[in-house]
Amino acid sequence: MNAKAEVTNSSLDTVKLLIAVAMIIGGIYGFYYFEHESQLLRVGGLLLAIVLAGVIALQTQSGRNLWSFAADSRTEVRKVVWPSRQETLHTTLLVFGMVLVMAIILWLVDMLLMWIVRSVV
Q: Is the pLDDT of residue 1 over 70?
């Protein structure tokens, strides 16, 4: 059972999220509005707007929950025992072999059904 109490979003969190969305929209608008400027400056401005919007969004409860989820996911991925290169190669070859065998079987069944239909007609 989860011991953490569920926290409702406050209006301040909603305002922060709206500001973050407005910053992203403003960055995209600025990217196209200043099309006569250097593309490097335009991309830099857009990236800056996205980063600042992300920082603002992470200050909300939803943002903290998302960051916690990402950190927990990273921890779980590190616990996974990944297959070796040889195991991966063998499994891939086995899958390709089974696909080939099934393709041949289905082709033969199709040919048999076609022969039956033609002989009936």
A: no
